[in-house]
Amino acid sequence: MEFHPRPQPGTAKPWAFPAPERGTLPNGLTVLRCDRPGQQIVAVEVLLDAPLDAEPAGLDGVATIMARAFTEGTDKHSAEEYAAELERCGATLDAHADHPGVRISLEVPVSRLPKALGLLADALRSPAFADAEIERLVANRLDEIPHEAANPARRAAKELSKRLFPADSRMSRPRQGTEETVAAIDSSAVRALYERHVRPATSTAVVVGDLTGVDLDALLAETLGAWTGNTAEPLPVPPITADDTGRVYIVDRPGSVQTQLLIGRIGADRHDRVWPAQVLGTYCLGGTLTSRLDRVLREEKGYTYGVRAFGQVLRSAAPAAGSPVAPGAAMLAISGSVDTESTGPALEDLWNVLRVLAAEGLTDAERETAEQNLVGVAPLKYETAAAVAGTLADQVEQQLPDDFQAQLYRRLAETGTVEATAAVVSAFPVDHLVTVLVGDAAQIAEPVRALGIGEVTVVEG
């Protein structure tokens, strides 16, 4: 019997994160463009300098309602007509608000790009913000809040933010508002936020896709270039502060058969030179099924389906002139769930993993696996225009250089085991972690107190 010869791998092609071209339209809008031959779905990201800190007192969530309202009609089209026009050109348009600002994301076939950019420009230039549509969006948001409160992971995140950040900080409160603040939002509040903070001079558009044969300069001039506004400076970025004194909060859910774990603090963001080592070390700790946390808590002990450690940038900005400190920060966290009876033992083993890591460090094999996973998958991760546009937008939002992502992969490959160990141990010190547990307090409070990882407080679920 003759078998077909086994296929052999081809020669690896060099890859680097794509570099954008940067320019500015006459109206002040910053534009980053990136030609990606073969990617017929063009992705456009628009960043608006309307951070959550800009929301008026008592109106938390108004930025979210404004973001959602951009797709609910303009001076040319009603909400239904606008949705139909997007569908006719095969486009999707989404928007959301977060601490750094509002982001609008468009994806459309390149053949329909002129029409879709015109619709996007209309939404930015003259959104309708009709009373009835704002009322509907507010009602929808009010319906979402009880569902989020019933989700253990969302409830844990809300509690961690409340306990980690000062009470007067916007970061201590839910990103999309509470029932009380959302109920107070009306169309006049939405329009006031828009008029104060949405303008081309402080905004950026990122365009990625196959631009062969597309006169993008002319197209932008006809669409986003027609958007006008004042030339006020971007809002200052206040520094982030947090209290990471080791302590435990149990959100009581009587009868719960599982406990949701969320353990966190804030640490270095992407402007800090330790970021690559922190990324590498955190991945070794809990980035995948082969990480230390999973190996112990999942494979050896069977407490959980999986536990993850991660760093998530909250808000990032370059240091002010003459200051070595950037006003941004990243949330460094460990998240997962265990059965109720295993809560105490699982936390004990988790803390032991951190202590052993501090005492013995990472192994070269762990570091090599993490590098291969983080760097090796990059060409696949950025196959789509949307993925490239999203990362370029992140860099703009966080005031990073345009080649940051490309340099990050180089720096990850150059980071040694000792550096990665030092970074992850510094990121997750055993005596400076705020722990939130969503579960049955009657069953888990005493076992957790016995661990001595911090004062235990039970709060209403």
Describe this structure in words.
With 461 residues, this protein is α+β, with helices and mostly antiparallel strands. It has two domains: 21-226, Cytochrome Bc1 Complex, Chain A, domain 1 (2-Layer Sandwich); 247-460, Cytochrome Bc1 Complex, Chain A, domain 1 (2-Layer Sandwich). The protein is built from 17 helices and twelve strands. The strands form two sheets. Strands 1-2-6-3-5-4 form a six-stranded mixed sheet, sandwiched between helices. The chain has a six-stranded mixed sheet with strand order 9-10-8-11-7-12, with helices on both faces. The chain starts with 20 loop residues before the first strand and ends with a strand. The relative contact order is 0.16. The model has no long low-confidence stretch (mean pLDDT 95).
